[in-house]
Amino acid sequence: MRPVFRVTPRRALTALAGIAALGLLVAWSGIINIGASSGHWRITSWALHWAMQNSVRTYALFEPKPPTDLDTEDRIRRAAGHFETSCAFCHGSPLHDQPRLAAHMTPMPPGLEDAARKWRPRELAHIVRHGVKYTGMPSWLALQRDDEVLAMVAFLHALSQMPPERYRGIAFGPTVPEDPVLEGCARCHGMDGASKDGAFPVIGGQSEAYLLATLRAFNNATRPSGFMQFAVDGLSDGDLERMARHYAAQAGVSETVRHDDMSRGARIALRGLPEADVPACESCHGASSRRNPGYPRLAGQDAGYLAGQLRLFKQGHRGGTGYAHVMQKIAGRLPDDAIDAVAHFYAGDP
């Protein structure tokens, strides 16, 4: 009678040690080809993609719930220029659907024209925010900027139905400046720095001191923004000075606000919120000749932008310049409805 083979703890450990030793030997030998030109085996590609899909589905549960009005025009426009400069050379675009470099990468970056069909909004948000290991897909430069991540998700939703002409218009802007340093700025802010659709802040006419301090804060990553940190990456301080000088010379933000407005936002802007120890916004951001040039003017800015920035201050996610700590304290004392009210006042909304 043949003896029955039994699996004992010692035999199991010996087998595992043998498998591990064999794996180390194979890795040490160098016979595994890691060259991108060889591609993946089909089973390897399937296994990696399967694991990635499961991971995204699980971790997407921790993403903030997208707003019901996710696919707004301002969000779509806000992400278009960034997509062209940082994503299109791998994933393609309506103007260039088969980028040459991507075809020689392993794994090959997928086209994103049907991303909204393959992934739910929270799954896309997780991919945009955290990237994907072993693929070259980076994480967002400012993980805490939910607003920027959602803007990119909205853009990806719109991409499948976006004709080349529209993509060109929102990704490159209406004009191409002769100065290459200003080209990246003009994609989103235009040459005059006057946002007309709420997608971007009005920067034309702000003081040169404020603009330069802000650009430097983006450049050294003390003011988090995936859009702006990428836009100024690699620029010299002289380049930043030229940008600030150009936009400070433009006509953009308004000097005055309506003093006959009786809304709650007007009361907060003009008289403050004494019960919350909040000073009048105009005492720092008004048109007075004594205004600190390091403070921005607010009149004429988009309400959604202003409210978003105040909430970033309140959450401690906006900083960078030497006065950020002041606004963090003030915004922290403002209720959400007060933030919306004062933002609509400065935007001139009824």
TrEMBL record:
Keyword annotations of the record:
Electron transport, Heme, Iron, Metal-binding, Transport
Q: In terms of domain of life, where is this protein from? A: Bacteria
Pfam families found in the cross-reference section: Cytochrome_CBB3
Q: Which GO terms fall under molecular function for this chain's record?
A: electron transfer activity; heme binding; metal ion binding
Q: Which residues form the Cytochrome c domain?
A: 74-160, 168-251, 260-350
Hydrolase among keywords:
no
The identity of this protein, by name, is Cytochrome c
Q: Which organism is it from?
A: Ancylobacter defluvii
